[in-house]
Design goal:
Layout: E1 2-5, E2 14-27, E3 30-43, E4 47-51, H1 58-66, E5 76-83, E6 86-87, E7 90-91, H2 93-102, E8 104-107, H3 111-114, H4 121-126, H5 132-141, H6 147-151, H7 160-172, E9 178-182, H8 190-207, E10 210-214, H9 218-224, E11 227-232, E12 235-241, H10 242-247, H11 252-259, E13 270-272, E14 308-312, E15 315-318, E16 332-336, E17 348-360, E18 368-380, E19 384-388, H12 395-403, E20 410-415, E21 422-424, H13 438-445, H14 453-466, H15 483-495, E22 501-505, H16 513-530, E23 533-537, H17 541-547, E24 550-555, E25 558-564, H18 565-570, H19 575-582, H20 595-598, H21 618-622, E26 627-629, E27 635-637, H22 639-642
Parallel strand pairs: 1-7, 4-10, 4-11, 8-9, 9-10, 19-23, 19-24, 21-22, 22-23
Antiparallel strand pairs: 1-6, 2-3, 2-5, 5-6, 11-12, 12-15, 13-16, 14-15, 17-18, 17-20, 24-25, 25-27, 26-27
Length: about 650
């Protein structure tokens, strides 16, 4: 890309103007048309949410604005991209560096891969500002409690929320006019996500910074954005005010995105509605990219992309056959999923009693940090139990102990059939060997069985059918698969020799809404068909409520509340559970997060939540609460319960 400064007519306060943008990237030996005739504008202090499923081109648009399209992909750009009067398709590299240094910044999804792991935070902040006082001020602005201490640390010594706030501080240190935030909250738990969203709102108000906020979570978009741009296969299908689009979308694709979102009032007895995008083989070149999935598609939809039409003030769509603008909110299929109460199996497949885990620091082997404290779990055949809580609460460590990947410091673990559980990881792509085809990966999973070649091939094709993978996919490698397909391959590897227990560690957190629905449907149907118990780790309480019959809430390595999933979500006993529920975006909650709350340390004495609990008493700070049982499976550890206040 070449660069030069140009003057152009632009509306007052408009910092970004994109007109007729087309982007091609080389993939393999051919150019792929990623963005097609995209128009976009961002004003001072405006937050524009860019939404759409994975592969829509959202990140490519963000990278185009930042001038960071990968050279290895030989990018070709056509159209006008004006930022603060600079034409990004003709600016020089020197001017681009100057623009990025002073006026535009980026915040990316994974701060650990964006921050240099071998450099202290102070050194990395100096790349943005050589003024140490300004660096400290920027860290204070993003609610870092002890900025001078953080400056002296490496990224791995910070929590996920702290790393993300450091990235935001680096972006804000120069008070830029534009920030491109690419999925900055996707991998964060709900409380840290609420804090980051609250922070971004404050920063745009204080500095009049414009944001392009890339997300696949419409709940997040509803909380933070002034306007929404809906993208599919590089095309803008709808854009306009957030309140209008999310309450009465005009385009059928926008309605699908909204109806795919899992909410706290979803009927647990019905399967989730999914779209057939992984099964669609036809590629629409000139027509609407949604035509092959649209129930209202006309013949012209397959051959000609519609012109943009206005449906309201600042609200446009591109659709040949728009239907009445309403959202039913029903994302269910008429298929019963849940067993009625009392039908669960009484066969216990796993018992964990008083599990404790302690880690010792590298600096001082004598210093022990408790990660799990007195954790119990009784799991029945076919039962699904969810573990929820903030990052660092001990969920994944407990799961790894159940899987035999970690050894408990103390406690008893009994697997009643002596068969090791299998595990589905959050990042399915990194758990699949990249140089093996899907067929080879599945063969490898049953290599210990004494089977003939014909029997192995039959089992491979049978398990592929169970998880809705076509025979064409069996010849592919992980890198060429979609996120949903990779997750189904990972699940297929686990169930080709069905375990009695499947452990799922955040298997849907990085997927868009429709892929979440497909993955949950698959896991639940396999659990029913194979009578397979599941322990499901998630930070999304809406997912936990839908997928499980029981929820266990973890904090500071302890179970602070447990019970029927509906009861825990509707009538939480512990203040910490209430805080998790109140932090969910798009559920009508007002996001609030004071600076004092954002970096409050968990207390090692008394209740771990006491430093953040609005109802904390003196005893909460000095004495660990005892577990109070309401019934056998319904309990909480809280001094307020002991005092009879709940």
């Amino acid at each position: 890309m070449n660069y030069a400064y140009v003057e152009e007519d632009k509306t007052e306060d408009e910092i970004v103007k994109v007109t007729g943008l087309n982007v091609w990237l080389r993939r393999g030996r051919q150019d792929s048309h990623i963005l097609k005739d995209v128009d976009l504008a961002i004003k001072k202090g405006e937050i524009v949410a860019l939404v759409g499923e994975s592969g829509s081109g959202k990140s490519v648009l963000g990278m185009t604005l930042l001038g960071l399209l990968p050279r290895s992909s030989t990018p070709k750009v056509d159209g006008k991209v004006s930022i603060l009067g600079s034409e990004m398709t003709s600016i020089s590299r020197k001017e681009l560096r100057n623009l990025r240094r002073h006026s535009i910044s980026g915040i990316f999804q994974d701060p650990m891969s964006s921050l240099n792991p071998s450099m202290k935070i102070a050194t990395q902040m100096k790349e943005v500002t050589s003024d140490l006082e300004r660096a400290v001020e920027a860290l204070v602005q993003v609610a870092i409690k002890d900025p001078k201490s953080v400056l002296g640390r490496f990224p791995f010594q910070l929590s996920g929320g702290q790393r993300q706030r450091v990235m935001i501080a680096m972006a804000l240190a120069k008070e830029p006019a534009l920030i491109v935030a690419d999925e900055p909250t996707t991998a964060l738990d709900v409380t840290v996500q609420a804090q980051i969203l609250f922070l971004i709102k404050q920063l745009r108000r204080n500095f009049e910074t414009g944001f392009l906020f890339v997300t696949h979570d419409l709940g997040v978009a509803s909380e933070i954005a002034d306007s929404v741009v809906v993208l599919l296969a590089g095309r803008v299908l709808e854009k306009g005010p957030t309140a209008d689009i999310l309450s009465r979308p005009a385009h059928p694709y926008t309605r699908e995105l909204i109806s795919s979102r899992l909410t706290m009032d979803q009927d647990q007895g019905l399967r989730l509605r999914t779209n057939p995008r992984d099964q669609v083989q036809a590629v629409v070149v000139d027509g609407c990219p949604y035509a092959t999935r649209c129930e209202n598609a006309l013949e012209i939809c397959h051959s000609q992309f519609p012109t943009t039409t206005s449906v309201g003030d600042g609200w446009t769509i591109a659709c040949h056959n728009p239907t009445p603008r309403s959202v039913s909110g029903d994302l269910s299929l008429e298929v019963q999923r849940r067993k009625v109460e009392g039908e669960e199996s009484k066969i216990v497949v796993l018992e964990a009693v008083a599990i404790e885990k302690t880690f010792r620091s590298r600096e001082s082997r004598a210093e022990a940090t408790p990660v799990l404290v007195n954790v119990d779990l009784e799991l029945h055949q076919g039962e699904v139990v969810s573990l929820v809580g903030e990052s660092g609460s001990g969920k994944s460590t407990f799961l790894r102990i159940l899987a035999g990947l970690e050894e408990a410091t103390s406690g008893t673990l009994v697997r009643n059939d002596n068969v090791m559980p299998k595990m589905v990881f959050q990042d399915s792509g990194s758990s699949l060997t990249p140089w093996l085809t899907v067929r080879e990966l599945l063969r490898e999973a049953i290599s210990a069985k004494s089977l003939s070649k014909a029997e192995i091939e039959r089992e491979v094709e049978e398990v592929a059918a169970k998880v809705d993978l076509s025979t064409k996919v069996l010849a592919s490698r992980a890198a060429s698969l979609s996120g949903g397909q990779r997750q189904r391959v990972a699940i297929a590897r686990c169930v080709i020799s069905p375990p009695s227990i499947l452990l799922c560690d955040e298997p849907t957190s990085a997927l868009d809404a429709s892929l979440v629905a497909g993955t949950l449907n698959l896991l639940l149907s396999l659990s029913e068909r194979l009578q397979m118990a599941m322990v499901f780790v998630t930070h999304d309480l809406a997912v936990a409520r839908y997928v499980s019959s029981r929820i266990m809430v973890m904090l500071g390595g302890r179970i602070v509340e447990s019970g029927d999933s509906d009861e825990v979500c509707a009538k939480p006993l512990h203040p910490y559970t209430r805080m998790l529920l109140q932090s969910l975006p798009g559920e009508g909650n007002e996001l609030k997060a004071s600076i004092a709350e954002m970096d409050s340390e968990l207390t090692s004495v008394g209740c771990a939540f006491s430093s953040r609990c609005p109802e904390a008493m003196e005893i909460c700070r000095t004495t660990p609460p005892q577990v109070v049982h309401i019934s056998r499976q319904r309990y909480a550890a809280c001094h307020l319960l002991e005092g009879g206040l709940s």
